[in-house]
Structure formats: structure tokens, C-alpha cells
Amino acid sequence: MKNNYTVIKASSRVLKSTPRKLNLVANLVRNRKVSFATVQLRFCEKKAAGLIGKVLNSAVANAQYNYGLDIDNLYIKEVSVGK
Predict the structure, then answer these.
(1) Neighbours of 72 (CB within 10 A)
(2) Which tens digit of pLDDT belongs to each residue from 14-59?
(3) Residue 41 to residue 47: CA distance in whole angstroms
(4) The whole model's pTM is what?
């Protein structure tokens, strides 16, 4: 059985927040469906939620326009935050 997965990447190099604060918000959306993650980020009151939300929206746009994938079937495999 062959798994037919496509990995879409989006990144942001300079975010004006500490990695510790970004990781708190990133833990909310790791290994979740994109629809659930966008709702979580929209109602989270932390500044880092807006920053991660922009990167997530960029990844969704890349998947939709560059690869023609359906937004309803997307999920977040990995979120990495570092210095």
C-alpha cells in the first residue's frame, strides 16, 4: 500500500516573539486538521497566535494554488520553532 502524501512547507524567518512563547501556541495546532487549527488560532488571545496564523495561511495558500489540494483534507504534520 502506497501512501500518497504531499508535504507543503511555509516558513517565516523573523518573528518578533520568543521561541518559548511561539511554542506555547504551536502546541495548540500540532497534528491537527487545518480547519480546527485556524479556529484555535483565531480565538487565541496571544500575539504569537497571529504570527503562526499568517504562516499557516501561507501554507494553505501554497497547497491550494500550487498543488491543487483540497483545503478540507489538509492537516498539520509538523510545526517547528527555533532561534
Answers:
(1) 8
(2) 889 999 999 999 999 999 999 999 999 999 999 999 999 999 999 9
(3) 10
(4) 0.89
